[in-house]
């Protein structure tokens, strides 16, 4: 993952957890790494995102504004990446099913609504044989 993107994600976690130590714990990263990533982000932006004291961390007004925008942007990014991954991994194509009437009534028709909801990218061609199959 790009260090800048990682720094943004770490920054949002610090805001959400209310501190560097809790963010580091939730991200399973050393606290020093979390601190360094946020410092690098602040240097890049040329602004302070947090007001730090020995006992507390609070978000600056600039940090709050940045947080609000990055949360929306990260959500959009995750949605975009999810849709790209989904489009590549979801089954697609033509599904052709030819079955006899009894099998269709007992097995296929009861399962069909759930199947069609789960697999929306299939174009289906259905054939139903009335009577005996030869």
From TrEMBL:
Q: Which GO terms describe its molecular function?
A: DNA-binding transcription factor activity; sequence-specific DNA binding
Q: Which PANTHER family match?
A: HTH-TYPE TRANSCRIPTIONAL REGULATOR, LYSR FAMILY TRANSCRIPTIONAL REGULATOR
Location of the HTH lysR-type domain:
1-60
The entry sums up its family as follows: Belongs to the LysR transcriptional regulatory family.
Q: Which Pfam families match?
A: HTH_1 (PF00126)
| InterPro entries recorded | LysR-type_TF_proteobact-type, LysR_HTH_N, WH-like_DNA-bd_sf, WH_DNA-bd_sf
- Species name: Serratia odorifera DSM 4582
Which biological processes are named by the entry's GO terms?
DNA-templated transcription
Q: Does the keyword Cell membrane apply?
A: no
Q: Which domain of life is it from?
A: Bacteria
**Protein name per Swiss-Prot or TrEMBL:** Transcriptional regulator, LysR family
Its signal peptide is none
The entry's keywords: DNA-binding, Repressor, Transcription, Transcription regulation
């Amino acid at each position: 993952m790009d260090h800048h993107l990682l720094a943004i994600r770490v920054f949002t976690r610090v805001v959400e957890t209310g501190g560097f130590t809790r963010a580091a714990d939730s991200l399973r990263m050393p606290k020093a790494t979390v601190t360094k990533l946020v410092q690098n982000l602040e240097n890049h932006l040329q602004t302070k995102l947090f007001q730090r004291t020995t006992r507390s961390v609070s978000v600056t007004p600039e940090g709050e504004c940045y947080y609000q925008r990055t949360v929306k942007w990260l959500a959009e990014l995750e949605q975009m990446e999810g849709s790209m991954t989904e489009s590549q991994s979801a089954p697609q194509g033509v599904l052709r099913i030819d079955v006899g009437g009894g099998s269709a009534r007992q097995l296929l028709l009861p399962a069909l609504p759930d199947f069609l909801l789960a697999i929306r990218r299939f174009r289906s061609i259905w054939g139903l044989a009335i009577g005996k199959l030869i």
